[in-house]
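Problem 12. The chain below contains 365 residues. Write out its predicted structure in token notation.
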Amino acid sequence: MSFEVNNLEEVRKAVNVCTMCGFCKSVCPSFKAINWDSALSRGRITLTYGLLNGDLEVSDSLVENMYTCTTCADCVRRCPSKVKIVDIIELCRADIVKNGGILPKHKAMVDNILECGNPFGEKVSREEALGRKPHKAKIGYYVGCTATYRSKKTAQATLSILDKLGDDFTTIDEVCCGSVAQRVGWPQEDITPLFQKNVDAIKALGVETLVLACAGCYRMFKIEYPKYVDVPFEVLHITEYLARKDLKLKPMEGVVATYHDPCHLGRHCEVYEPPREVIKKIPGLEFKEMKYNRATSHCCGGGGGVRSAYPKVSMDIANTRLDEADFADLIITTCPFCVNNLQAAVGDRKVQVRDLVEIIDEQLA
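Solution.
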């Protein structure tokens, strides 16, 4: 069966800009885990070129190579030709989906989002799960699916911090932000209504500043939402919000900590300093950077749909990142996906992996 090109027509010229130089080879996390050029940015460009020109069909091997990309965007940073590789890969995924090539795990997640408003298929309402009822307020906290239904400590810590700060804030009658569906290539016409539903719910509460503690959800509201819907309120990651506050924190003596930059918060949105500013507010904590930090930070392996479809690849990538923090007692990050994936790979290591909001909540007087 021939491959029907749709979304990829947008990037036909961009695909030809890649010079196959291989600079991406030094940074691609999935290549380091798999060691095949087909699982590398330039390899994926070659596969995309083959699909565009009718030289390739959607095979299991091709799908696997396109879906082991974590969308970390380190290749975009490294590319001397400035090719927007992640955009190309996601458009390629969209055409693969249109041609019937979606992976079963991804299809199940999207079906859950469309039916239940979250990728886990949870029927419990957000209000019931969080124990909070939305009300009119100028500050809104968008919790996200993972913190609501799986990484509940992140949600409860963020709620507790906002309570302790005395800010009048509200939770949102939210649905999935759409990140999962977009990353795996689901048709945008099904995703845009999710965007609009969330924006309408936020506007209805009179929210002027929206705070998010999930890097993936934050990226959606900052970068993706404005492409399709009007976003008439300020969007802040919780670390941007807390960096502005005078936090009275108890000391953490005798702990060596480092910070892992989530790809969606860091490279995608360029939020590097606010998390570090918040960490510096903790008295007595000894902070050391990993060799690869900020724009050069290595991926945790949890993004792009990789963990759900290819868990071994995801764990191999996480192990690489953990090895880089072998000097630390504590790895702090600011994304539930990063926390979950790094924690899952810790094994016998002595290091702890925690979300910054949990630490701040514990230390906040």
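Discussion. The mean pLDDT is 96. Students who got a different answer should revisit the alignment rule from Section 12.3.
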